[in-house]
Structure formats: structure tokens, C-alpha cells
Amino acid sequence: MTAAIEFRDVSRVFGDVRAVDRVSFAIEPGEFFAMLGPSGSGKTSCLRLVAGFDSPDGGQVLLDGQDVSSVPPYDRNVNTVFQDYALFPHMTVLENVAYGPRVRGVDATTRAQRAREMLDLVQLGMQGERRPAQLSGGQRQRVALARALINQPKVLLLDEPLGALDLKLREEMQIELKSLQRRLGITFVYVTHDQGEALSMADRVAVFNKGKIEQLAAPRELYTRPATSFVARFVGGANVANAELATTLAGRQAQPFAIRAENIAVLSETAAASATGNSAAGVVVAVQYHGAASRWQVKLDAGEVWSALVTEEDSRALNGLAVGKRVKLSWPHEAAVTLSERPSVS
Amino acid sequence: MSLRAASTFFYRRPYWYLALLLVPPLLWFGTVYLGSLFALLAQSFYRIDDFTAQVVREPTLATYKLLVTQPANVDIVVRTLTMAIMVTLACAVIALPIATYMARYARGRMKALFYVGVMLPMWTSYLVKVYAWRLLLAKEGVFAWVWAKLGLAGLLEAILATPAIGGPSLSSSYLGMFIVFVYMWLPFMILPMAAALERVPGSLLQASADLGARPAQTFRNVVLPLAVPGIAAGSVFTFSLTLGDYIIPSVVGAPGYFIGMMVYVQQGTAGNIPLAAAFSVVPIVLIFVYLSIAKRFGAFDAL
Q1: What is the DSSP pairing of strand A293-300 with strand A277-289?
Q2: Beta-strand (E) ranges in A142-262?
Q3: Exposure string (b/e) for A195-221, b if CB count within 10 Å is 16 or more?
Q4: At residue A9, what are phi and psi to the nearest 5 degrees?
Q5: Could you give the CA distance from residue B12 to residue B16 in angstroms, rounded to a whole number?
Q6: Of A81, A243, B157, B163, whose CB count within 10 A is highest?
Q7: B217 → chain A, closest CA residue
Q8: Is residue A84 within 8 angstroms of chain B, CB to CB?
């Protein structure tokens, strides 16, 4: 099967900055693909290369097996939902949605009909005559979605589409977007800096850092088996032991590893570590109460600050331990994930 | 009362504070600025006594009757209005590509260069520019010389032979006057247009291309409609400046009178203040008509 989108050794350079640094990957048709990374990591640059707003300085971008590196956006079967929605302020909602068919020469009756269908699809059937400025953020988001889908693109690009919405609306839209993608069966490429969003929606996630992909994997694998310390920290919020700390803790030459906060138990300093486990001593620097669990920040004797997630139940057993007290962190061997320090993909 | 006490007093009483800020400018604006204008306009409802040449201070429409019934006066209004419309259209057509380049493509030094270049002529004396243009457009002037060098002397002759716009030379034709007007008012069209185009987010143009619009379609469907408020603002300048100007028509161009010249002549040598006032009402009325037409076409909807 031909990949919907393929990057072959693609680079994009702005002055001294390699925004995209020899990146290769392929996205399957019908896949919900997330590009995750902090700002400036190259994910949006990649999206712009797919949309055609920018062309690569090296390598090839393929859509459906065709090299489109020099094809302008208006000749690509790809549509975009912009971060700021980019709705035309001088047009009504209906005119905005009908814009794609209009510039492609579809007659007025047909395109109004199709625009109404699209508005129904995003549950905005009654808002067609209003101006974008009269809509709420969530409604504008839906209009942008309807406008991008009306051309029946093979690929829909979404650039941080939920970034401007409040938390509750964002969660609703996540579910809606996911079900829309399943129904339409088209490829979604979703750019976000929110790892929760990427993990909950995507079939696969590419984690970007400094213009390269650090790891490309399914959400569960990213979370449970991060390949690099960057992925472990950014996606899982995990504690990372670099080679030096790992060697100190193990008492022999050891690989760097990651350990997630929920896998670490907090014990009193005098407690014996379990036979199958590892442990590290340190001083409690903060305890944040989150309801079902508390996050304990512990400064290890080696200098790193690690966090441990302690359930309410376990907290009770830790009576007397508080900020400033010495504790022991303990975790089972099998919870530690060995990391490589080099990006695994690219 | 100490400064601190005064601050507290005004902080607690925002309306007093507002009044303190607004009263001086409102006094100026209301009395000196609008007041004197209305005093002038009121004169247009007086008339001049034909025998004594004295102003008769009784409300009458006789002066307006004179304005609209005498063919010579109507000609002046039509001539001025036609020129104002032509100059406005030409300025809009010339300014659009320049403003588009300045707002959307030029970066850094190039952008600064363009803004300075557009404004530079406005920092020079208006009279110097008008007289310079008279020389440029004269029969043996630079313009005619360049055209002759390009082998286009015959074409220039033919253009000048055209009735209505032509004349003995460019500097004594309506075409020459038109060129000078367009030169003078172009910055007033470019700057508001560029300001309007600067405010168009780049993502709108990307969205248009993304949805399948070719650059020409994007320009027509997105850029142009969003530039309309700027074009409307600029055209109010070019239109009203042309309607009111009296120096350019008296220095460059054919001998026919323009509204501004008529105001100057009537209030000066002729001493007919009521007719001068009536003539100065004409541009005000025309601009109101122009603005209401522009509003009907939605020029201010995006404001």
C-alpha cells in the first residue's frame, strides 16, 4: 500500500537553524498520526511542508507516492485546520465553508448545498448566516473543520487545533475529532505540544526534538518503552537516570534508564529495600497533593530531583515523613526502562 | 490640595477625570474648529446685493439658486468632480500593488525604504513640487524630451490633440493637471491601504491557497476585500483633497475654473462671500454622498 505521506530525508533550514533535520517517516492512509514536541522542535515546519506552504531544502515530500516538493498548496489534495482557525472575517460562516468549492468553480447552488451538509456534520447547521466574529471559540473551530473537510481531502492537517479552547471543550472536541476521523476514514496529521492529546487520540505518535524525530511509536509503547531520555521526560513525565547516575545507583557500569513516578515507592530511610528492587536515598523537597495521589519531589543525594506518585492509601503509612526529611525511593527492576541517548529514528 | 489628594479625588470620580481631559480639546474642536466652519456655511444663506455689492444678511436660497442655475457654475462643479473621481481611481490602481508589496512582501530595510520613499515627497514644500511639475511637463520640459528621445513625440502630440484632456502642452492640459494631482495624493492612498493590508493575518492567505485558490483568486477574494477599508479611507483623502485644492489647477493645466479657485476668487477679488461659502458647501455635500455610497457597498463593514 502506498503511504499517504512520506518524508524521505527531508531538511528545512532557516539561517543557522535546522528546523527539520534529515527526517524520514511514512504515514499510512487512514491513520491518525500525531506530531508531538515542544515549540521549535520542527513539528509545525513538517506540517507546512505537507500543506505546501513551504518547500524542503533537501529530500523529498511524497503524497500518495508522488513527489510534491514543488507543488503549490492549491494543487495538493490536502487541507488544513489552522491554529488561529484563519476564518475569512468578511464572509459568513456558510461562505467560509463554501470557499473551497467556490474557487474550484462549483456552481453557487451546489456549493451552498454542500456547505450546509458540512455545517450539519459539525452541528452548526443553524449558524450559516453569521459572521465568524459572532461565534464562540469552539464554534469557530468547527467552522474551520467543516471548511477544511468540504473538499474531501485525502489528508487533513490539524495545527494545534484545540490550543485556544478551554479544558472541558478541548476534551469534548478530542472525542469528536477522533470519531469524525473514524467515520470519514481519512488520514489525520495532528500537530500538538500536549502529550495527553497525542496519546489519547493518535494511532501513532512521532516525538520531535530539535528538528529530528526522537521516537515514532504507538502511544502505549511511547509511554511504557520510551527510547530516549527526552521522550521519557516529555511524554511520560518520567524520572531519568543518566549513565553516571545509573552507574552510581547500581554500583557497577550501567545504561541510562527511565522510571515513571507511579512506579516509585517512598519509604522511610531505615526501611529495607525489597530484594528485587533498586533504591536511592534523598531529601523530600516538596509534596503536592492531587487528591487521589500526591506527588513527592525528592532531591537525591546524587543531586537530581525525582518525583514519586504516592496513592492516598500509601500516604497514610508515611506519617511523620515531610518536607526536609530523608527518605528512600524504591522501585522494581522491571519498571526501569533502558534508554539509548541517540534518537532511534531519522 | 496635594497632588496625592488630587489623584485620589480623580481616581474615585472617573467622570470628573474624563471632563478634565476632554473639555479643552472639545472647546477647541467645538468652537474654533466646527464653529468657524458653520459660521462660514451660514454665509451661504445670505446673498449679495447686485447694486451695492453689500452682503444682505437675510436667510435666502438665492445664492444656491445662482450656483445651480448658472451653467458656468455647474460646469465648474462637474469639472472638479470628474477630476476628483479620476484622480481617486488612478491613485487606487497605482497604490494597490505598491501597498501590497510594502505590507506583505517587503522586509527589514526594504520595507523601511519603501515607507520613507512614499512619505519623502510629503516632507517637501507643496508649492515647490507643483511648480517643479509645471517645468517637468512644459512644452520643452523633461517629459516631452524623454518621449521625443523614445521616438514617441508623435504619440504625445496625438494625446495632446485629444479634446477635453489635451492642450498646447502637458503643463497646460487637464491630463497634466491629472498627473500632478495623482502624484500629490498618492501617499494618502498608499499609507492607509498598506495599513489595512498589514492587518491581514498571513494564515488567511495560506488558508485560501490551502482550499484551492490560485494567487489571483486569493487576491480577488481575500486580499482585495480586506483592503477595502484602507481603500475607502485613502479615497476619502484623494477625493476631498482634489475637490478642495486651488493651487494645482491655477499653476498646472487648462484655464477652466475649479471649485477651490472659485472660492478663492469669489471671496477675494469679487468680494462675494455668500457665493464663495456656497461653493465650499459643494465638496462637503459631495463627500457625504461619496461616503454614503461607500457605506452602501460595505466599505466600512470590516471596521
Answers
A1: antiparallel
A2: 155-159, 187-192, 204-209, 212-217, 239-241, 257-259
A3: bebbbebbebbbbbbbbbbbbbbebee
A4: 55, 45
A5: 9
A6: A81
A7: A103
A8: yes
Residues of chain A neighbouring B214 (CB-CB closer than 8 A): 74, 103
- Judging contacts by C-beta atoms under 8 Å, the chain B residues touching residue A86 are 201, 203-204, 206-207
pLDDT in tens, chain B (303 residues): 688 988 888 888 888 888 888 998 899 888 888 998 888 888 889 888 877 778 888 888 888 888 888 888 899 999 999 999 999 999 999 999 999 999 988 888 999 999 999 999 888 898 999 999 999 999 888 988 998 899 888 888 888 888 878 888 888 899 999 999 999 999 999 999 999 999 888 899 999 999 999 999 999 999 888 888 889 889 999 999 999 898 999 999 888 889 988 888 888 777 888 888 998 899 999 999 988 988 887 667 655
Taking alpha carbons only, the member of B232, B210, B240 closest to residue B222 is B210
* Strand partners for A36: A192, A207
Q: Give the type of residue at A273.
A: A
Q: Which of residues 162-221 of B touch A (CB under 8 A)?
A: 201, 203-204, 206-214, 217, 221
Contacts of B217 in chain A (CB under 8 A): 103
Q: Of B127, B123, B159, give the one whose Cα is nearest residue B143.
A: B159
3-class DSSP state of B262: helix
Helices B62-69 and B71-100 meet at what angle, rounded to 10? 70
Q: Do A151 and B211 touch (CB under 8 A)?
A: yes
Q: What is the value of ipTM here, to two decimals?
A: 0.84
What cell was used for A86? 484563519
Q: Buried (b) or exposed (e) across A142-153, using 16+ Cβ within 10 A? A: bbbbbbbbbbeb
Contacts of A89 in chain B (CB under 8 A): 226, 302
What is the distance between the alpha carbons of residues A71 and A52, in angstroms, rounded to a whole number?
A: 7
> Could A99 and B211 be called an inter-chain contact, meaning their C-beta atoms sit closer than 8 Å?
yes
Under an 8 A CB cutoff, do A79 and B208 touch? no
pTM for this entry: 0.79
CB contact (8 A) between residue A73 and residue B225: no
Closest partner residue to A86 among B203, B213, B302, by Cβ?
B203
A96 in B contact zone (CB under 8 Å):
no
Which residue from A283, A334, A277, A339 is spatially nearest to A306, judged by alpha carbons?
A283
Residue of B nearest to A89 (CA): B302
Helices then strands, counting H and E runs in chain B, come out as 16, 2
Contact between A311 and A292 (Cβ < 8 Å): yes
Show which of residues 48-87 on chain B sit within 8 Å of chain A, judged by CB atoms.
Answer: none
Sheet holding A293-300, edge to edge: A265-268, A326-332, A277-289, A293-300, A305-311
Residue A95 sits at the chain B interface (C-beta within 8 Å): no
Are A89 and B302 within 8 A, CB to CB? Answer: yes
Q: Is A151 on the interface with B (CB under 8 A)?
A: yes
Q: Which residues pair with A23 in a beta bridge?
A: A10
- Note whether B102 and B113 are within 8 A (CB): no
* Min Cα–Cα distance to chain A from B224, Å: 11
